[in-house]
Please model this.
Amino acid sequence: MLSTILSNHGYELSGGLSFACGFAAAFIIMLIFGRKYINAMRRWQKKGQPISENVPQSHLIKAGTPTIGGGLLLLAIIVSSILFMDFTNPFPWIAIGSLIWFGVIGFMDDYKKITSQSKKASNGLSPKMRLLLEGLGVVILAYCINSVMPIYLPSYSIAFPGGYIFPIGILLYFIFAYFVIAGTANAANITDGLDGMLSKIYLPILVVLLVALFGATRIGFIPNSLLLPDSAALFPVLGATFGALIGFLWFNSSPAQIFMGDTGSLALGGFVGTISMLLKVEIIIGVASLMMVTILLSSFIQTFVYKLTKKNGVGKRVFLRAPLHHHFEEKGLPESKIVERFFIMSILFSGFALLLLRL
Model:
């Protein structure tokens, strides 16, 4: 909004300045309204987020903690982005559309969990309904992403480190988009299991996206980087995401006063996957997200092995409990220690991703 007004009067917000403005606005919104939002969620939910029987017993002390903290997080990102983004550019609208779509799916899941009395419904949306909604969103997003790519890039293509572009055709492109966007969304959802963990794992990944964005908008900043001038409109959106996430961590750090819920985790995951496709850095972000991928795979491996061995007798488990962070909790590691170690691993994976970005 402000960017468009200034542009009409002959002034332009630089990428760095619009990033800083988006960051400041979102962070301030989180700090000003965070406490009020938490109190409102506590009054509405009364019992807070249901504590699953599949988590360690130590989590029982968290009973009563409100959830759907992602609601304020998304509101801060969207409002701050709109204040400073270029309305005429499709890039930020696609990113915001991703936030809203996956945020709504997450809210539906959260709402069903906290309002339903039946044991079955407390699990949230059915897997089929969730996959259907995610798939529909991915199809729309993938179509929009492909349509805004520069004409010098082949349609329905993916990029590899070093600037190599490979057209893969429309069918494989949409399948690839599903793994990138919906896969990242679900990995983030599984990762959001300990106080402050998802925020801390995500911040290094956002740094990689920010560096990639600089490379896409500044000639020579990153060797062999694809030049995507229109992507500069993403600076205020990324800034707002940084500010909102750090502001949320203010209240979500241990002991958490509110949980992000599926509303926030699914939205953030889909958002990162979407921007990685807009910047053609899907492989790079995949490397940066390896901590989340590992956590997601731990749940998949646990379920697969248990079902496989169950057919031949007693089901066996690879981990004491899945996802991976609950395995370490069962081994006696304090929650804060697990969060900090996973944060360190996210920094290392993101650092390696930055090295690949420089190829």
